[in-house]
């Protein structure tokens, strides 16, 4: 992965920078020892690594502001980091950067059940937001797979989704307000506990900006009362196309399931071997989950079963108990682990219009044969968010490069089918150089204009999202100005 | 000026030498000066996939046409956009581009989300005449910055919308509305909070103080609606007598369009606040008419002409929009650091300041 050449002038100022940062932060919050900065060399996209020059772990918005002001004055790039679970390299450092980790900022600031909001510091993990309101039977809806570890800061940066977003939406639909520090140290407050922020929807553009506009330190999130219950049905088909048609018919029927998950042959087999979930031998498997009271669940499941039967499923398994539900979900939830046991894998997350599903799966199969690399498909079928997992051998010379090339082909295919490069993981460094396949230069220029306003010097996470060739002039202008 | 293609529109904007007032149906009371630039020539639904819950349409398409196409497949715009004609005394056909430009959402916003939450993609012509696209037609998309949200509610000041792509949802098989006779705003907001904080999926929570009635809407499959209505009786029964409304659909259309203020004199303000702040604010408003939606989070206030509500109420956590009336900024001025950002954004999207200048500050 190509990254900008580290700025020698910045590296030469390391000692001065450490000294200035130590004046505004507790001693243990400035990490400059080379053995310790190694801990920040990558995120969950472990194929790419580079230790940062420094890492800092502030505990308050004021400390974040002090750090950014100093880095701004010293011309040092800053890479914000939540819990480092990005699958796209969103928190990948450069050798001349300061990693700003928000992990120590994990307090709940306010819980307000009457107004159905919670205000938290951004380093708090996704699942512990729900943990803070569970005793009153409330929850925070977006549920990325990494929710045990991932931070709200990263969720906001990547506009994270999850399996249940078909009904509840993604981060941006559940974010009401935030406190953010801009690169020059200015603190801004946007939105709050009221539903619609006034003026331009800055909340909307900050969410999903991949840590390039500022460091979010606090967030006001919508919390919801938990449904009375939820149960899935498992539906097995011989054919992908038929499964796709079934998904479309369920959606058209007026039922809004909380999740519709899809797995193909390779994934089903891998999960079965790994988790022994008792999945049937079939080519396409759907898990459809609905919510409500017992009677409401029964009614919705019966309608789904009725629709599914029209498509001649090879098996239908309606969960009748919590144990059965857990078993149905067990395989799906261990899909990544199961595939990981088979080999190294690269996980993509392009999104396609649901109607293109059969065509895209067929084409991925053809490409798989052409590249000689196996692909398992598991995805959020209700919203077309695919997760092809390409298997490769990291120890075999050339395999990673071959896999990257194959992955790029799949993502281009998603775009050509009317979809997009990434549905929930973000662009990061991983898909940066494919952006011109989805957008024109003018489209990207309009996006970069937003960054120009928030971070004119292009110091905040500068080598991500846009192709390096496209951002080169802006990054060079900063270095020349020093 | 009334271009009929995106290309013509782009050319017109590129050649502008003075500010324009961008117009869809002209029903939402936009007050800027300048020559009219109508988008109604960009008309027609381009793609509708009911099985994928997505619709792509040119921006000048009448809302009625979009809603009719959706209804034919048993679907709808779940954010329930308000029709401003009755309240503002305007005529014309509201366009979908106008709905998006003003981020217009109705009572279901409290449950389902706002217009911006259902907007999947846009195409627009920026202030220099360049055609830009952002987002797409799929429900999950985090590819690059989300300019889609930025365009929703930008009132044309960042660009002229030419195409919008929306997520749509199935219509409900049944709907019922519970009416609860409550005593005063504080009690109404407390009751609405209890209902919205229950697991019974209330899709509308409004209070009409003139009638002393708090309304709760429940939608879904008939059996589910009946069940939830019964459960909600238990949740809000302690707040006052509960009865069932006769015509739920009409009631909520009236809440959506603020029918209570139609034909009544004075300025109309729309105030977005934290619901629990609503009772105190309502007292201080001393309004001639009030209507509460979104569980108390949206206050409609009718006051004497020319009242400067922002000055009167001081610093409120939320924002106030002057929907009907003149003499003050339509949209709430922003605090200093944010105002600088939004001003710079407008300057980047529309460097010459020709698109609806002054509308947002």
Write up this protein.
The complex is a heterodimer of chains A (482) and B (361). Chain A has a seven-stranded antiparallel beta sheet, sandwiched between helices. A five-stranded antiparallel beta sheet of chain A has the order 5-6-10-8-9. With 482 residues, chain A is of the alpha+beta class. In chain A, helix 10 crosses helix 13. In chain A, a hairpin with a 4-residue loop joins strand 5 and strand 6. Chain A is globular, with a radius of gyration of 23 Å. Chain A contains 18 helices and 18 strands. Chain A folds into three domains: 265 residues, Uridine Diphospho-n-acetylenolpyruvylglucosamine Reductase, domain 3, CATH 3.30.465; 107 residues, Alpha-Beta Plaits; 94 residues, Alpha-Beta Plaits, CATH 3.30.70.2740. Chain B is an alpha+beta fold. Chain B has two domains: 165 residues, 2-Layer Sandwich (Uridine Diphospho-n-acetylenolpyruvylglucosamine Reductase, domain 3), CATH 3.30.465.10; 159 residues, no CATH class. In chain B, 29% of the residues lie in helices and 26% in strands. Chain B contains 13 helices and 17 strands. A five-stranded antiparallel beta sheet of chain B has the order 3-4-8-6-7. Chain B has a four-stranded antiparallel beta sheet with strand order 11-12-10-13, sandwiched between helices. In chain B, strand 15 and strand 16 form a beta hairpin. Chain B is globular and about 65 Å long. Chain B starts with 5 loop residues before the first helix and ends in a 12-residue tail after the last helix. Classes of the chains: A alpha+beta (482), B alpha+beta (361). The interface between A and B is large, with 96 and 84 residues.
